Amino acid sequence: MSEAFWQFPARHGTPDAAREGAWYTSEREIYAKLQLEPAQCVYTYEHETTKRDRPRSLKMAIAFPDLPYAHDALSPAIGSETLQTHHGKHHKAYVDKTNAAIEGTDLADASLESIIAKADETGNAGLFNNSAQSWNHAFYWHSMAPTSEGPSGDLLDAINAAFGSVDALVEKLQSAGAGHFASGWVWLAADSDGKLSVEETHDAGTLAIGGKNPLLTLDVWEHAYYLDHKNVRPDYLKAVSTGHINWDFAAENYKRGSIWSYPSA
Ligand SMILES: [Fe+2]
Questions:
Q1: How far apart are CA 151 and CA 245, in angstroms?
Q2: Which of 35, 48, 170, 187 is the most buried (most CB within 10 A)?
Q3: Which residues are within 8 A (CB) of 88 and not within 5 positions of it... i.e. 6 or more apart?
Q4: Domain locations in the chain?
Q5: Contact indicator for 243, 148 with CB cutoff of 8 Å
Q6: Would you state the pLDDT for residue 175?
Q7: Residue 264's pLDDT is what?
Q8: What is the DSSP string of 55-121?
Q9: How is residue 225 annotated by DSSP?
Q10: Third-level CATH fold of 153-256
Q11: 190 pLDDT tier (thresholds 50, 70, 90)
């Protein structure tokens, strides 16, 4: 293998332009001369000009969390091939693109929630889409479980108060998801008084920021169900909402009363 070199990231906002793109022969040298933190460095090889993965000693700013269950755990509602692609390709791509966008910027060490909020505030659509989709998918994996026991306690009381019954809530999630135009997300959410509602967001829209506390979500992008149910979105929604809702996760979010935090790297 070629000898490893270190390069100062060209787009880093340094006042000393002469440092940008400069090469150094050791990790120690770049830290000593530039007084940098490891996360500000990009790992590359002498014979290549393209950026390579960071070495293991440098943490990624945003984590790519594992699925909380096996790929076949939700089958046949959601099959193994769907989860391998949806998690391993789609979700990973959103995380990778978010990390690439924040690298060397003042958001490099920010939480994912802060990145989403900043992208929304500044109208950075590319960063918003990738960061919000990173958050939405991690939240979605936890919103489902291999088996579903049904809600209880305070969450059950809140569901009955808002919708009349658990069955009525499930039907509302299904109808909202089936009727949602094009891509997006359907959510069960609580307001600051603990009152529940079913919400919809379009495309990468998220409840990770804003006034509602999301309790669970269902992905209604076509990539979530096409391999298992072709274009019949209602079949996917029925299979998931009647057999795989993680009510324990929803109850934890309801009890906490504040928005779930994306896992750190
Ligand atoms: Fe998705």
A1: 9
A2: 187
A3: none
A4: 4-45, 80-143, 153-256
A5: yes
A6: 98
A7: 83
A8: PTTSPPSS--PPPSS-TTTTTTTS-HHHHHHIIIIIIHHHHHHHHHHHTTSTTTTS-HHHHHHHHHH
A9: T
A10: minor pseudopilin epsh fold (3.55.40)
A11: very high
- CA–CA distance, 60 with 39 (Å, rounded to integer): 8
Whole-number pLDDT of residue 36: 52
Give 74 Cα–ligand 1 centroid separation in angstroms. 15
- Look at residue 51 and tell me whether its pLDDT is greater than 60: no
DSSP readout, 15-39? Answer: S-GGGTT-EES-HHHHHHHH---GG
pLDDT at 29: 53
Contact 143, 77 (CB under 8 A): no
Q: What's the whole-number average pLDDT of the chain?
A: 85
Distance 184 CA to ligand 1 centre (A): 9
Helix axis angle, 247-256 relative to 125-143, nearest 10°? 120
Q: Tell me which of 26 and 199 has the higher pLDDT.
A: 199
DSSP annotation of 185: E
Q: 251 alpha carbon to ligand 1 midpoint, in Å?
A: 23
As a residue count, the chain comes to 265
- The architecture that CATH gives domain 80-143 is Orthogonal Bundle (1.10)
Cα(141) to ligand 1 centroid in Å equals 10
Residue ranges with CB less than 5 Å from ion ligand 1: 219, 221
CB–CB of 190/196 below 8 Å?
Answer: yes
Q: Which residue has the higher pLDDT, 40 or 258?
A: 258
Whether the predicted pLDDT of 247 surpasses 90? yes
